[in-house]
């Protein structure tokens, strides 16, 4: 009788430990899922800010210069698709943002040919805000993908995989960017250097540079008496 009681207590202890482990793994899945969803919401906020800045950038460019219309049309169309991708998931959003970044790269390349944009403070301010927004998106993407990697890895390990199926958890999508141009924040630094005017030519040896005064002649020494 005493042996049966001991066996019963051991079985109950094992069941309690097993149930506790299952509850712990389930709760961990739930916490990871919530962290991933929260980190994605932060990225989504920055993406919306990015789209607003692009819209303002297009309007400022239209007002400041007779810009190439085809380039502006491409940017507007890509921005519209990116805005429409909100809520479609990280994978679809990543594809839309990649197309938008391609249009932006072409936009900034064409902008190099317009010196009046260099003097437009609104344009430069918006461009700087875009760079800062891209930095925050990049940081948020690394944080989000790191959480997704840890979460998805648990689906491939035992016994957490059983808990995932029991709890009806699903793997999360990565926010992937295949185009290296998307990883780099668009920048106009140095883009207008060629428009600031030619540099002064280098004078031949022994001649003063253009715009400078020649040195005064050395005083004559009297001949020895």
TrEMBL record:
Annotated membrane topology: Single-pass membrane protein
Subcellular localization(s) per the UniProt record: Membrane
UniProt similarity note: Belongs to the LemA family.
UniProt KW keywords: Membrane, Transmembrane, Transmembrane helix
SUPFAM superfamilies, alphabetized: LemA-like
Region (Disordered) residue spans: 185-225
Protein name: LemA family protein
InterPro entries with a match to the protein in the record: LemA-like_dom_sf (IPR023353), MamQ_LemA (IPR007156)
Compositionally biased spans, kind Pro residues: 200-225
Keyword presence, Transmembrane helix: yes
Gene3D superfamilies: LemA-like domain
Transmembrane stretches, start-end: 6-26
């Amino acid at each position: 009788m005493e042996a049966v009681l001991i066996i019963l207590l051991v079985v109950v202890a094992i069941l309690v430990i097993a149930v506790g482990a299952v509850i712990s793994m389930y709760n961990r899945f739930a916490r990871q899922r919530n962290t991933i969803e929260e980190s994605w919401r932060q990225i989504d906020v920055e993406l919306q800010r990015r789209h607003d800045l692009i819209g303002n950038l297009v309007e400022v460019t239209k007002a400041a210069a007779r810009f190439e219309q085809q380039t502006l049309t491409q940017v507007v169309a890509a921005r519209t698709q990116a805005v429409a991708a909100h809520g479609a998931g990280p994978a679809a959003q990543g594809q839309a943002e990649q197309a938008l970044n391609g249009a932006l790269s072409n936009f900034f390349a064409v902008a190099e040919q317009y010196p009046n944009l260099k003097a437009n403070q609104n344009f430069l301010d918006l461009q700087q805000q875009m760079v800062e927004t891209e930095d925050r998106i990049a940081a948020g993407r690394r944080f989000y993908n790191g959480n997704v990697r840890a979460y998805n890895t648990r689906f491939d390990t035992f016994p957490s995989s059983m808990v995932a199926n029991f709890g009806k958890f699903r793997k999360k999508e990565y926010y992937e960017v295949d185009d290296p141009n998307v990883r780099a924040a668009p920048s106009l630094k140095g883009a207008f250097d060629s428009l600031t005017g030619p540099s002064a030519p280098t004078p031949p040896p022994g001649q003063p540079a253009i715009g400078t005064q020649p040195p005064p002649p050395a005083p004559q020494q009297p001949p020895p008496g």
